[in-house]
Amino acid sequence: MKIAILPGDGIGPEIMAEAVKVLQALDLRFEMETAPVGGAAYEASGHPLPEATLRLAQQADAILFGAVGDWKYDKLERHLRPEQAILGLRKHLGLFANFRPAICYEQLVGASSLKPELVAGLDILIIRELTGDIYFGQPRGRRSAPDGAFAGAEEAFDTMRYTRPEIERIARVAFEAARKRGKKVTSVDKANVLETFQFWKDVVTEVHQDYPDVTLEHMYVDNAAMQLVKAPKNFDVLVTGNMFGDILSDEASMLTGSIGMLPSASLNDKGQGLYEPSHGSAPDIAGKGIANPLATILSAAMMLRFSLAQPAAAERIEAAVKQVLAQGLRTADIWSEGTTRVGTREMGDAVIKALQGV
Ligand code: IPM
Ligand code: MG
């Protein structure tokens, strides 16, 4: 088994170092190979996703990804910006199914901006379609407006589109996932306005015929944004397109009190996966040794479960993380009165120590 390690930018290298330490402490046999990605790769070789990095990712059974991006690259042409690395990996590897769990850990209920009773015990799963929609739809670009009230004016445009097979396969992923949990899927659309999402709703409804044991509900995206802060525990599995999923998954992650705790997985139809923390590169705290490595460590656990067929090892890591939280150890982002503030490295060390006992 081969794991591609892509640390990236900002806090990426620091949090990745801890996840790699944890993986090494497991005593399993796999090969890890590191390659630059994002701004770091642009600095080293002039491109955010160099050929060699892409090749490594394609050959690996799984990819552990840190984070990419920094304000300092905002003025680069779009195709050279760090974000293109993650978009390129998703597209080239066909990583269409993005799992973003939002789980509120018992010990962190107080860190949520919502009332404790709304989030205590929260465990929802956002499944975001990741290779279609307005993110990748062609045509896109700038031109002179061909019609409308401002015909002839400078204009920019993107294209929202979904094919039937793209919707069918992500719907199946969502229904299968729901079967293993609360047996409810909420499909989020904007069918009242958009042709693309009326089609989405129709196709999801058709696929649902094969899953009579799962409840399907449809919800407009604006209402879903509201329900997520009003009564988040009413959701089980939420499935939606690339754009809405981007927005709603950030919203959902905040309910849990710390985006620094949330892992994610992006899978293709071969079971190959890219695993990354849900948070970004946080350039403002990079290099300070204070970033929370737990989302990356938990992403490594997801990787062991979904791509490397090591569910027992995944459970050990998850149990170890719960244990360090129970011990009161907290990085700055989740620290509160009465708990012990630790840095990135100490947190990683504590997880390894806890691993010995579980
Ligand atoms: C995410 C990020 C990316 C996205 C960016 C970095 C391109 O926000 O993974 O949610 O929009 O998909
Ligand atoms: Mg996002």
Describe the overall structure:
- With 358 residues, the protein is an alpha/beta fold.
- It folds into two domains: 196 residues, Isopropylmalate Dehydrogenase (3-Layer(aba) Sandwich); 144 residues, Isopropylmalate Dehydrogenase, CATH 3.40.718.10.
- 39% of the residues lie in helices and 19% in strands.
- It has a ten-stranded mixed beta sheet, with helices on both faces. A two-stranded antiparallel ribbon has the order 6-7.
- Helix 7 links the parallel strand 8 and strand 9.
- Helix 1 runs parallel beside helix 12, helix 8 runs parallel beside helix 9 and helix 11 packs across helix 12.
- The two termini are 24 Å apart.
- The model has no long low-confidence stretch (mean pLDDT 96).
- It binds 3-isopropylmalic acid and magnesium ion.
- The site of magnesium ion has 2 residues, from helix 9.
